[in-house]
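Appendix B, example 12.
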Amino acid sequence: MAKKVAANGSSATRQNAPTAASDESPTLAERFFFDNNGYLVLEEFLDADHVTALLHALHRVIQRRRQLQEQGLPQTGMTNIMGAESTRIFYILDDDPLFLEMLDSPAIWPYVTGLLNTRPHHHASDAILEHGRDLLGRSMGWHIDGIDEGFRNLGAPIPLLQLKIGYYLTDMTQPGQGNLCVLPGSHKTASAPDREDLQRWGSSAGVTEICAPAGTAILFHNALLHSAGPFTREEGQRSMLYYAYEHPWMIASQEHWGYPSQFYNSLSPDRRKLFHGFLFDPPEQRWG
């Protein structure tokens, strides 16, 4: 079975949790764990009131998105309806102000700039609301992130080109409710297992299932093999927000073309720096 994981990749007893080396974020211990394992778990990173507000916003937005999708009306991003209630939505930054605020939250920003780039750009955003009663028995969907089969054409090991951050908005301390699953250290490999091997492994062979409470932030490397886990009971629920960041010289996401001009015009000067300069009229310099 998959190993159950708590904060910073430790076991549920936290016996192996890294010890913070300083007050700066990310700490040396966090950097070491991320570099070696390809992911980092920051348990209860968001406070309870913030999580509640984000969860309420997510339910409102998904209800509106599903209505637009079912009526065939235009919307900024894509909406993937997976059942009576389960839904995944993409391009969420203009769906609710709370979602845009999460993009450059002061709490997470030292991790983004410290692990990826001092001048990162936004890459992509999406949100997930899943219910076990819709998705019992689904198989694993192992993959790495990035174009061209996850940047594998660049050689091995695949460099850190995108940093992805997921936020648990519901309690995920128990396994079997769609928890994120990862293969620690897989971002450093020179070769990839084939799809048959991955499906045969299922939730074993060193797989780590991220079990953590609401408000937890999960950061991972683009080349880390990961998958949503299985649902083993109908009452299981998975609610998440995802944000991905890239280097300023990359142009890898069509999400940047998806937002209307009024969205970009409403951004603050500092927030505009998180987007490619050619999106603005007139274009803006992003290297100086």
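The chain is about 25% helix and 20% strand. The radius of gyration is 19 Å.
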